[in-house]
Amino acid sequence: MEVSVSAGNSVGVQTLAESGLAHVPSQYIQPPENRPVSFSCRKTSDSGIPVIDLFNFDPQRSDEMCQELRRGCSDWGAFQVRNHGVPKRLLEDMIKVGLTFFKECSVAEKCKYSCDPNSAASEGGVVEEYSDHIKELALKLMSMISESLGLQSSCIEDIVGEVYQNITISYYPPCPQPELTLGLQAHSDIGAITLLIQDDVGGLQVLKDDEWVTVQPLSDAIVVILADQTEIMTNGQYRSAQHRAITNSHRSRLSVGTFHDPSKTRKIAPAAPLISEDSPAKYKEVTYGDYVSSWYTKGPEGKRNIDALLLHQ
Ligand SMILES: O=C(O)CCC(=O)C(=O)O
Ligand SMILES: [Fe+2]
């Protein structure tokens, strides 16, 4: 397993915000159709991503919780989990590590941390302990997701192979004109599965039926976001979530995303048991490294990267 830690692109934005701007610089202004306001006026038909209690959860029993898992994976591509086995103290400590980093380190120190994950990982051992727990949970979720589709519990993990873990701490300073911009533009994650924690401010939104729905911050929960490789492996039965982050004018926000990816040489294709004459493969096989390169060429916007692999467009 490989772990790396980075501060995403938050450092530059933080430096800009701290210079006391009254207006959002023009390069950060979104076209009207992408701005948060046009969506917040809409009626929200669904109350939000499912919240699943993993205490005594058995995916082979088709009880209410299992249905919620399937609903989360197929309708949203995202859900929250509670009683996930990661100590609440560790979630709080990880958020504190992120805050300390953004509030107390100099720009030079931040850049060093971004480039040298080991210095961040040695932060009182918190990052290491957190990544170990999160990896265990990610593997458990991969097996639950496999079983919920009637697959062998190891099916998704077998396709993914060795899991590469990457932690990104994102800091969104208060924004003078939050209605004109986004903290992070709409995208789907490219790997297999993302586990995210956030502070109590809120700002993560998931797209459902053309509506942006805010993910309610829950202090004991972990947000699970299915990424593109899971959509491919499940042959589209489960979807990767399109998500984004909005900002607000009065409080900064911090999130910690942990991405779980296949190795660059791994070939990812729909799981064989899901393919039949009645249910043909919807996605071409792809080498994960090629998928990543195409992402860097095309950029993160929406889901156009995975759409390029569709066999029948
Ligand atoms: O900050 C958030 O809530 C979202 C972060 C995210 O989606 C990402 O880093 O890919
Ligand atoms: Fe993301």
Automatic annotation (TrEMBL):
Domain Fe2OG dioxygenase intervals: 162-262
Tell me where on the tree of life, at the top rank, the source sits. Answer: Eukaryota
GO molecular function terms listed in the Swiss-Prot or TrEMBL record: dioxygenase activity; metal ion binding
Looking up Pfam families in the UniProt record yields:
2OG-FeII_Oxy, DIOX_N
Key words, A-Z:
Dioxygenase, Iron, Metal-binding, Oxidoreductase
Recorded hits in InterPro entries, A to Z, give:
DIOX_N (IPR026992), IPNS-like_FE2OG_OXY (IPR044861), IPNS-like_sf (IPR027443), Oxoglu/Fe-dep_dioxygenase_dom (IPR005123), Plant_2OG-oxidoreductases (IPR050295)
* Stated family: Belongs to the iron/ascorbate-dependent oxidoreductase family.
Protein's UniProt name = Oxoglutarate/iron-dependent dioxygenase
Q: Which organism is it from?
A: Macleaya cordata
